[in-house]
Every structure is written in structure tokens, then in C-alpha cells.
Amino acid sequence: MGIKKTRTADMTSGPIMMQLIRFSLPLLLGNVFQMLYNTVDSLVVGNFVGTEALAAVGSTTMIINILVLFFNGLAVGAGVLIGQLFGAQDKDTLHTAVETTMSMTFIFSVLFTIIGVAGVPLMLKLMSTPADVMEPASLYLRIYFSGISGMLIYNMGGGILRAVGDSIRPLEFLIFTSVMNTILDLFFVLGLHKGIAGVAIATVISQFCSALLILRLLVRTDEIYYFRFSDLCLNLPLLGTIFRFGLPAAIQSTLTAFSNTFVQSYINTFGSSCMAGWSCYNKLDQFVFLPIVSMNMAATAFVSQNIGAGQVKRANKGTGVALAMISVITIAISSVLVLFAREASAIFTSDQAVIEFSVLFLSTNTMLLIFNSINHVLAGALRGRGDSFGPMIIMVSTFVVIRQIYLFVVTRFFINTPKVVGFGYPIGWMSCCIIQLLYFYFRWLRPSKKEA
Predict the structure, then answer these.
(1) Is pTM, for the whole model, over 0.90?
(2) Which helix (H) or strand (E) holds 134?
């Protein structure tokens, strides 16, 4: 069974920067279309339903992320394992790893549907959701979690493809289903007048289509990563490796998302206009974050393949190139967004109070995303070499503990304003960046230099 060069990418040789660019560009476009799922929901409800509906969609993002990011952490572990097996060209074990990964995905799809739907009232209560937002937020979440398995299956299937260097076809599927989601949003809201329920239904339908497309590809391919329902299994040693690589990332992502629900609860105390402004800021801020996520995934794939092939020096060099590239990109995009903050915010709403809050958060936080870009790309490189525990400890300590201490202290003993609360994000980013750079140098880079 050969490796088709048009579908997979061996990153253990060749020019590093060009490989990272070729691999990350489709990821970037794919992440743009992934973001369009929820962003289009916000655009439609903000312009055609109302401010309360916009606040509801924005406030539910943090809740959705708690479960989705936990699973995506496990997907990182599966991707690292598959990437290392691909780099080592261990085809039989790689196939067993794919079957184990998909079995795990189907199990979690059932569990997360039950947990998500049943936990909606408690999660909204923990976030101090205002009364005027409670009903639409609850409706949106119940529908969304009822169909969350579509997203999980697509994300894991796409992760398998990216681990072997194929970032093109996940992009093709996302483009198709994102266009579908936009059309369905408008159909359900403007044509059928379903309101916030309509955008949730449209998202679920589109995500199921993406899952079916990725499953069809994996089942019909004859490449190294092929999947067969008849071969479904849970290989316990491989499952243990997936959890060893992925569980720290899952825990870190989940705790960070859970911590962010408390940030949201602070924001919620300032009313629905501030909530909607925070929602607009987060949607726009995510577009700056898209290249960061793409380079994070590229760094993980690059490092995992090279570690699997025994090329530690090349893995370290690729990490440095990825950090340099993402720093330049983040500064450039952040500058443009801050410069046109008002115009960008007005895309989501014509409510001037909402726009003012959005501009406030953008002007305060966005340029500081340079620190977070380093955090995530470096964490991706560390996970690619099998070190998930270090980034987990550092990110939980800074994104959760330090951030929550800051919010508690400043809001109770100094000043409680939207700007001060919003600055809780950069506090975590900056402290994480410093600690993680020191960790990478002393844990991995300095020992490599001594060995050389």
C-alpha cells in the first residue's frame, strides 16, 4: 500500500518554511470556514433577530467549547500518534490506531450528546446568564448539542488526514458545508422565521454533512490511513498512548474554556449590550487567532513526523521557524483589526452601544495576541514531540489560575469595569508566554545543544 504524494506530505526532508506554508495555508482557509459556522450564526441573528439573540449565541460559545475542546485535545493525541507512526512508516500499527481513534470518537459522540443536552440549565446558571438571554441561549444549546456528533466525527477525521500531511480535503469539505450553513441560516431565519432555533438547526445539518463526507473519504481510500467499519476496535495500548498524548491537552483546553465561562459571567453583569459587544469582539478576535491555530497544527504535524523519523534537530529548527512566522503574521493582522475596529464591529450590529463595547475590547486586547500566538504554536510543537504534560500545567496555571486571581482581586478591591474584566485575557497570555519559553529552552532546547 503506497503513499500517494498528492494526498499526504512527508515533512521529514525539504525546505522547512515552504513545507509549513504549504501545510498551514489550507489549514488557515479551513479554520476560516470553520469559524464561519458560528460567525454566520451571529451575523444572521444580530441583523435579523435582535440584540438578545446575538448575546445568546455569543455567550453559548464558551459552553460549547468546554466539551468540544476536551474532545479536540484527545484528537491532538491521536494526531500525534498517527503522525509519528506515519513518520516511522509503521503501516499496520497506523491502521489499528485509526480504527481505535474512530471507535473512541463514536463513543464520545454519544456521551457528549447526553451530557450537553442534560447540562444546559446548569451551565447557563453558572454563567449568571441574564433572564432576557436565558430562553434563547437554552434553545440554541439544546439543538446544538443534539447534533454535536457531526462536529466531533469531522474534527477527528480531519485530524487523521492532517496528521499524514493532507490538509487539502478537510478544507474542501469545510468550504462546501460552510456555504451550505450560510444558505440554511438565511432559509430558516428569513424564510421560515425560526429565529435562533433556525441558525442552530442549520449548523447541525451542515456539520452532519461534513461528518458524512469525511467518513466516506476514509472508508473509500486505499491510502495508509484507511478506515473500515468492520475493523473497528479499541486497542488498549494505542488508546493509552492517545490519552497520554492527548489527555493533558484536553484537560488544559477544558479548564481554560471553563475558566472563560467565569470571565463571561463577569461580562454578563454589565448587561446585554456589553454581552453582545463581547460577542462581537470574540468573533473578530478569532479571525486573528485563525493563523495561530493553523500554525499550531502545522507545528504539531511537522514535529511529530520528524520525531518519529528520529530527526530531533530538524524538529527544533522547524519550531523556531514556525514561531517566527506566526509572530509576524499576528502583528500584521492585529494592527489592521485595531485600525478598523469600529467598521468591523458594525458588520454584526447597528446598535451603537454594542459597537462601543466591541471597540473597547478590541483596542485593549487585540495587539497583545502576539503573546498568545507564541503560546499556542510552541505548545503544538511540544505536543508533537509527545510532551503534553508541560504545556498543560503551564496553560492551566496561567490561563485559569492567574487569570481568575486577577479578576477576583481587581473587581473586588480595585475597579470593576468592562475594560478591566476584558484585560483578564492578556494577563493569562503574557504570563504563559514567559513561562512556556523558559520551559521549552531548559527542558528541550538546551539538552539538544549539549548533545550536539
Answers:
(1) no
(2) helix 131-146
